[in-house]
Amino acid sequence: MSPRPFGAFSIPALELAPALLGSILVRSINGTRVAGRIVETEAYPGGDDLGSHSRGGRRTARNGAMFLAGGHAYVYLIYGMHHCFNVVSGRDGEGEAVLIRALEPLEGLDAMRARRGRSGDRDLCRGPGRLAAALEIDRKLDARRLGGQSGLWIECGTAPRKIVTSPRIGLGEVGPWASRRWRWCDAESIHLSRPARIGR
DNA sequence: ACCGAGATTGCG
DNA sequence: GCAATCTCGGTC
């Protein structure tokens, strides 16, 4: 049974974020598959969401990819050190994206370990910066369409039996929005994402 | 032009 | 607890 590509990227970020839980993020590096199951996501709608890079329609050299059509990659550098991978959602020009915050490592564990240096397997892909490093995702992939051409795509997986929601990490109390983070909560991988806690 | 804070991480 | 050090918005 061959894997089906995930395709429903044009829905709003608030719907895409939970829908992505359980699907498989795949990176092809020189023909080698490195992949993991998505277990933690955050929605970043644009518009009046003060926590979003695209708030108020702000458009810069860094966040331009956010305004592409759903199904593109938005990769940015944070703290001058780490890359964060987002799946652009919605329609062209809307400026919505879903941040992928954690994976359960499934394939290419040796390649992940090699890129992550000294790290326990549990921490290989736990955190946005860590999974970007493990899958060799950086600014070169920014604004690329997800798919075989870019060597980065998403395959349909298994829906979690249980999902928990909580506020986004690191934003504090931003406006009237409380729960915009989703975590796969089944027993076998609950420990692979960040526990619920209000940032800062 | 300068400065502080940020969707983070690893080391002390 | 803090340094690493890019990007951007606010302020001077």
Mean pLDDT, as a whole number?
Answer: 92
Q: Give the amount of beta strand, in percent.
A: 25-35%
| Highest CATH level, the class | Alpha Beta
Whole-Å distance between the termini?
45 Å
Task: Report the major sheet.
Answer: 8 strands, antiparallel
Global Rg: 15 Å
Keywords:
200 residues, alpha+beta, 3-methyladenine DNA Glycosylase, Chain A, 8-stranded antiparallel β-sheet, 3 helices, 8 strands, globular, DNA-binding
Please provide a written account of the structure.
With about 200 residues, the chain is an alpha+beta fold. The chain has a single domain (about 15-190), classed as Methylpurine-DNA glycosylase (MPG) (3-methyladenine DNA Glycosylase, Chain A, Roll), CATH 3.10.300. Helix content is about 10%, strand content about 30%. The chain contains three helices and eight strands. Strands 1, 2, 3, 4, 5, 6, 7 and 8 form an eight-stranded antiparallel sheet that branches. β3 and β4 (about 80-90) form a beta hairpin. It starts with 12 loop residues before the first helix and ends in a 16-residue tail after the last strand. The mean pLDDT is about 90. It binds a DNA duplex (12 and 12 nucleotides) through β3, β4 and α3.
